[in-house]
User: Which sequence fits this backbone?
C-alpha cells in the first residue's frame, strides 16, 4: 500500500454531488461526526474496473445512515454512479473505494437537529490487505480484550465509524504484540469477529461461523457462504465459544479489504491452511475477477 498521506494526493474525490480536487476535499474541525461519531461508511473493491457487489454496498450505506437516524440525501443509484465516476476519473482499474456519509458542522452539540448530511466517495490503488507470504502461511490472531457490545447498547448492524474505535484499539494491541490482527469476543463471551472481518472455522469438512446478531453480517461473509454451498460444503451459523477453538482444523476470515484469508493461529490455538481454505480463496478470487 502506498505510504502517501491521504490528505495530500493527486486525483479527484466525489464530494456532495461533484468531483473536486483530492486536496480540496475537507471538512470543518467542528463537524458533528468528528465529535459524536455520526458517520457511516463502506469499503468496496474494483476488479478489472468493475466494482464488486456495488449495489449491495450502496444500499448498506443508506441503511447504516438510517440506523444512526439520518437519511442520506442521495439515492442508491446516485451513490452507485458516484463510485463508478470516481474510479473512472482517477484512471483506476483495480482499486479500493471508500464512500462515507457524515453529519457536518451546521450545529454543535449532542443533538443532531439542524445538521446536514454530507457524502463523499474516494478511490485509490490498494493491493492485498496482507502480503502474499502471510496469506499463504495463514494469519496469526491475538484474542482481544475489548468485546463487541450488545445490540441494546449500539446500532451494531450499521457500518458506523464509532463502532470501530474498539477495533482500532484491538488491532493496534495485536500488531504491537507481533500478531496480524485480533479476534474479538462479544458481550456474552462468544466468538464474534476480527477487527474488520468476519471469521469461519472448519471441522470434519463442515464450516462453522458465528451468528451475526451483534456485529456486521458482511457482504463478503455472505458471498463466502454462497460459494461454500455451491461446492456442497455445509455451513452452520451458530454461537461459538472460545474453548471450542481447539476442536477446529482450519479457519479463515472474510471482508472486502482482506478478501478471503486463511488463519494459522488464534492465541494458543493452531490451524492448518487446508484444502477447504485454499478452495475458498480460489473460488472468491475467481468470482471477483469474473472467471
Assistant:
Amino acid at each position: 500500500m502506498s505510504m502517501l498521506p491521504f490528505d495530500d494526493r493527486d486525483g479527484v474525490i466525489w464530494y456532495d454531488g461533484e468531483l473536486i480536487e483530492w486536496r480540496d476535499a475537507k471538512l470543518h474541525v467542528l463537524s458533528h461526526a468528528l465529535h459524536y461519531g455520526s458517520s457511516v461508511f463502506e469499503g468496496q473493491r474494483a476488479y478489472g474496473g468493475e466494482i464488486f457487489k456495488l449495489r449491495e454496498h450502496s444500499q448498506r450505506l443508506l441503511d447504516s445512515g438510517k440506523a444512526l437516524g439520518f437519511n442520506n440525501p442521495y439515492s442508491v443509484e446516485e451513490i452507485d454512479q458516484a463510485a463508478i465516476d470516481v474510479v473512472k476519473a482517477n484512471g483506476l482499474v483495480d482499486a479500493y473505494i471508500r464512500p462515507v456519509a457524515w453529519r457536518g458542522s451546521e450545529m454543535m452539540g449532542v443533538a443532531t437537529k439542524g445538521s446536514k448530511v454530507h457524502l463523499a466517495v474516494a478511490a485509490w490503488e490498494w493491493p492485498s490487505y496482507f502480503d502474499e507470504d502471510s496469506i499463504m502461511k495463514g494469519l496469526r490472531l491475538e484474542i482481544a480484550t475489548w468485546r463487541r457490545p450488545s445490540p441494546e447498547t449500539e446500532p451494531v448492524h450499521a457500518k458506523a465509524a464509532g463502532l470501530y474505535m474498539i477495533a482500532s484499539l484491538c488491532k493496534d494491541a495485536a500488531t504491537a504484540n507481533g500478531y496480524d490482527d485480533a479476534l474479538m469476543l462479544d458481550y456474552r463471551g462468544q466468538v464474534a469477529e476480527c477487527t474488520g472481518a468476519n471469521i469461519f472455522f472448519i471441522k470434519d469438512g463442515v464450516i462453522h461461523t458465528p451468528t451475526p446478531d451483534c456485529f456486521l453480517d458482511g457482504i463478503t461473509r455472505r458471498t463466502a457462504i454462497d460459494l461454500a454451498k455451491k461446492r456442497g460444503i455445509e455451513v452452520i451459523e451458530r454461537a461459538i465459544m472460545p474453548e471450542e477453538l481447539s476442536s477446529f482444523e482450519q479457519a479463515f476470515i472474510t471482508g472486502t479489504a482482506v478478501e478471503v484469508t486463511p488463519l494459522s493461529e488464534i492465541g494458543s490455538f493452531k490451524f492448518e491452511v487446508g484444502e477447504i481454505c485454499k478452495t475458498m480463496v480460489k473460488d472468491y478470487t475467481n468470482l471477483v475477477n469474473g472467471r
